[in-house]
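Hi R.,

Here's the input for the calcium ion complex you asked about:
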Amino acid sequence: MLMIVAPFYINRAVAELLARPVGGLLSSRMFRCELLICMLLWSAGGPAANHCTSPRSSAFKFSITSRRNSTGHWIAEVKLEHNAEGKEVGPWEVDVDHVTSKCDNSDLITIAATIAAPSSISKPPAAGYDLVPGLGYYKLHTDVKTWHEALRACEQEGAHLVIINSEAEAKALTPFWDMNPKILNGAPNDWAHAGFHDLYKEGEYLTIFNQTLVGAGYVKWYPGDPHGVNQNCGLVIRRDNLLADIPCNEKQPFFCEKEL
Ligand SMILES: [Ca+2]
Ligand SMILES: [Ca+2]
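And here is the predicted structure with calcium ion in place:
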């Protein structure tokens, strides 16, 4: 995360001049934009970047422009350009705080831009995985396997059996079901192995990374589940992506996941 703060004083007369919606003032406005960018570069890059050239970066560049609208409010606009390749990059987020305070004949304008970059530029772990922005890559395998076979299959692809960590992640699985309306006959058509079990202690469900389901963030059981001693491996159900259990040796489709 990069935090950039660009405080500067601007004479009120100049501010009003720049704010007038007159085309002849364009050059003055441009000068003001350049001033902002230079100050931002200095803040971002330290002494080595303390010069007024065009912003250059192999990773990203951004600019902030500031104007006063017809109701007298200051508006800050941020433009961010980065070199993301393809669509498999996580979202960038920009938050801008713009505060104006008056002191004698000057306005103190503080613009704070917080840019949160993706933690890494990731790629699909294997063929057939689809990106869910902000969450990860997912694949509903329709080739049926036992739970332990599915566990290994996900790992061999650089992923893991899905662990639902939120309501949003549960909802994100729905399109994968919708793309595969018919996998098996009967009720098993609606079941897929997921990354939790109670293999260590009956009734104590843990994720494959030994987190409790509460700790993982999602505990919504299918009505009547979980069952008991003969059903120790986790399922996700097509209907609302609710959780259930199943005998581990039953062959089912399975969801793999790789976080961003
Ligand atoms: Ca997850
Ligand atoms: Ca059990």
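One thing worth noting: The chain has six helices and 13 strands.

Cheers,
M.
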